[in-house]
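Researcher: Re-running this chain for the archive, since the previous output was lost when a drive failed. Same request as before.
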Amino acid sequence: MVAIPIYPAPTPTSAPPLRVFSPLGSRWTYLRLLYLALSFPLGLAYFVALVVGLTTGAVLAWTIPGLALLIMVVIGARWFGDLEASLARRLVGIEIRRPPTWYERDVPVREQAKQVLQDPSTWTGVLYLFAQFAWGVAMLVFLATGLSVGLAFIATPLILSDLPLFETLREQGDFMVGPWTLDEGADAWFAVPLGFLVLLATVHLGNLLAVLHARWARLMLGSRARDIPAPPATLQDGPVAVSAAAVQHASIAALTAREREVLLLIARGYSNAEIAEAFVVSEGTVKTHVKRILAKLDVRDRTQAAVFAFDSGFVTPESASEPEPR
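Model: Regenerated structure tokens:
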């Protein structure tokens, strides 16, 4: 029996696709240019909000309202980071895995603030937001220069024509585009293809800058945990939730559905931070679940809980390696 490949190998004589002008017909090109254009207004808003908030909070740091303001500014920076991650996903096509922002209702506000302040991505996100202002200024200059020079070259024959709209420019003498001086002769028409080349170069460089900046945003705003585990399917009470061998253990049956899910991920070797991201809760909530699991199973630590899960039959080696429980 001869195996037929699904995708035939390309022949050596096949010509490579022409990709020079392909970005002009892609919607991602214009979305990424929009991503660069939004860098300046958003960067300015981030800079003003952070400077005003942190300065005011630092001046009043010896009072309770001052400390509360500082914490609110840091937490607000997390929301700004979520906005940047959403723009990178929608306009550039790069996913940024963010730490959980919304928490379960039973988590106290103090615990939520503590988790946010202890997260390293919170502080790298603040640095990113400050740097966004300088990046926005640079992108504003880049887009304004590239687009204006390119369009000016293309419109040179029109500007030097007899249209009354451009009479003032003609009265001033030769038409200036940056360091270049153009007259009504061949220079005017020679500038048209040069303008298209400038616009094409601006588009290609804009695509590259948008992708590089989105990857930089992923480095600064992304979660520091490893790959998020797939959240197990909701375990219901009954034989589906607990295997036949585990039914004999009253401690396993006493666990709630969420506690059984957490125990399954503990047996898979995931940390509290990773479990928190899987269920979009705070790490403090996961710690509470772990404490209750240890108490109900009457074990000392996470390792003993994982061993208990395997010994009781609640988790098998196959289910521990699969993305979903048996």
